[in-house]
Amino acid sequence: MRKHTFERGRAILVVAALMTLAACGGGDKKAEEKAKADAAARGGQTVTAATASLADLPRSVIASGSVSAWEEVPVGAETGGLVATAVYVDEGTYVRQGQPLVQLNDALLRAQLRQQQASVQTAQANAARDDAALARAQELKERGFLSQASLDNALADQRASRANLASAQASLSETQTRLSQATIRAPVAGLIISRSVTRGQIVAAGTELFRMVRDGRLELDAQVPEAELPLVRAGQSAGITADQATGPVSGRVRIVTPEVDPQTRLGVARVALNPGSGLRPGMFARATIDVGAAPALTVPAQSVVFRDGKAGVYVIGANNVVHFNQVTTGDRAGPNVVIAGGIPAGSRVVVQGAGFLGDGDRVTVSTRAPAAAVTAPAPAAR
């Protein structure tokens, strides 16, 4: 009897506890519904808004490639078979036009020069003698004291001596030229980028001894995608970045090649680099080419939030109800960001407070922006 009474009492307690929990749960649900109704009556969260608008923004094309010489000039020996007795410059030396680079052994040439100078003097004396003999023969012929045959012989001797003189002078001139070529000079002003001659080397005619960059001018062979190639034109300015640059480097598009590689679908814009870049042929660099301004749709960067890893903005619709619109973002433009797709121009988007919103929320748009931007972790998409 006592056991039955105890079990009945315990059952009553359990039922009472369940009723209490149900009452509490119902109270919480009602409180939540009341809070939502109050928020709706007040207009929801207070936010700031901005209008997605078109603006003319600077547009650029980014291309990369290798640095090359504007014009490479090979320097070689015009006369051969001589030994290099001195090398005056090395790689990295900037030289002026006509500056000596290599001296070849010219002792034999100088000896030949002296010999040929003597030959010219002898030929000049012989020519003078035969000129005088011809003049006397002509005078005697006119006076009837000399036959025509003798006059013809005098004329032949004079012509032969003149020919010998011309030959001696030509040989002398050739030796003088070879002697001048024994000193190898810079054909243009520029930068020495390679050297392949050493002291004591026998130099053959036509052998390349140095390679120069004319005037030290370099350019970047920038590889431009074919879709952006029509935007690039000669004369456009470009900023150059390279890991090896000693400072800011700028340049200007010199020429756009008329051909596109059928394999890579890339064209080439040759960007002339300003002096003092510190770059060298073969180095890798990137060019940001200014191709002018173009209209672009922009919104404040703060309005872009992420939901499930996707970028988007909250667009304010009828009755101040917001909806999450996924967008494609582009470059930054100061405090704004370019919107490449997702919303039309004129859309009103939430700026401050966007991180707290969910799709379908109702907001109150403030006419005055708060002093500081609201920052908070983005809630899960709803």
Question: Can you offer a commentary on this structure?
Answer:
The chain is of the alpha+beta class. Helices cover 29% and strands 36% of the residues. The protein has helices spanning 2-42, 107-143, 148-181, and strands at residues 45-47, 49-51, 53-69, 72-76, 82-87, 94-95, 100-104, 183-185, 190-195, 202-203, 208-214, 218-225, 237-241, 249-256, 266-273, 284-300, 305-307, 310-316, 322-326, 328-333, 336-341, 348-350, 363-365. Strands 3-12-15-14-13-16 form a six-stranded antiparallel β-barrel. Strand 13 (237-241) and strand 14 form a beta hairpin. Helix 2 packs antiparallel against helix 3 (148-181). The radius of gyration is 46 Å and the shape is rod-shaped. The two termini are 59 Å apart. Residues 1-27 and 370-382 have low confidence and may be disordered.
Short précis:
This protein has 382 residues and is of the alpha+beta class. The chain is built from three helices and 23 strands.
Topology diagram in text:
Blueprint: H1 2-42, E1 45-47, E2 49-51, E3 53-69, E4 72-76, E5 82-87, E6 94-95, E7 100-104, H2 107-143, H3 148-181, E8 183-185, E9 190-195, E10 202-203, E11 208-214, E12 218-225, E13 237-241, E14 249-256, E15 266-273, E16 284-300, E17 305-307, E18 310-316, E19 322-326, E20 328-333, E21 336-341, E22 348-350, E23 363-365
Parallel strand pairs: 1-23
Antiparallel strand pairs: 2-22, 3-12, 3-16, 4-11, 5-7, 5-10, 6-9, 7-8, 9-11, 12-15, 13-14, 13-16, 14-15, 16-21, 17-18, 18-19, 20-21
